[in-house]
Write a structure and sequence with these properties.
single chain; alpha/beta; 6-stranded mixed sheet; 8 strands
């Protein structure tokens, strides 16, 4: 699985003109399941993201997790994280998981974050979404379970 994590002051996702998820301070997680991924990759990402120390402590150092600051997580599916741009100018997405597998892992991942005790909002899998965010820092981190 691949995740692009952004520390945000606030973020929201809109589908067909309606806000379906929004958070204040916390993390926006764009997530993509890849072919061959299973719950083990989602479990790894959940544990990593829940403990990721990217928020400032009293000394101004990135030393606190989203849980420590009592923040929230907005999870948005984004199959384009699977883009292969090695050939030509049009990205290929054949490495992304099949839609039914991607949906299952997306839901499982978000549910696991809830089980970690984090407030979680979600986008709508497969929908045309408008994501709005105020990146704090900016802090943007890429995690690919293939690299662990």
């Amino acid at each position: 699985m691949r995740a692009l994590i952004q520390r945000v002051s606030d973020a929201s996702v809109t589908v067909e003109g309606k806000v379906v998820g929004e958070i204040g301070p916390g993390l926006l997680v764009l997530i993509c399941a890849m072919q061959g991924d299973d719950q083990a990759q989602a479990d790894y990402l959940t544990a990593k993201i829940a403990k990721l120390r990217v928020f400032k402590d009293d000394d101004g150092r990135m030393n606190q997790s989203v849980r420590d600051i009592k923040g929230s997580v907005l999870v948005v599916s984004q199959f384009t994280l699977a883009a292969d741009t090695r050939r030509g100018n049009r990205p290929g997405f054949s490495q992304a998981a099949a839609p039914e597998d991607g949906r299952r892992l997306y839901e499982y991942f978000a549910d696991r974050l809830v089980q970690e005790g984090l407030p979680v909002e979600r986008g709508v899998f497969g929908a045309d979404m408008k994501v709005q965010l105020l990146n704090d820092g900016p802090v943007t981190i890429w995690i690919d379970t293939e690299d662990k």
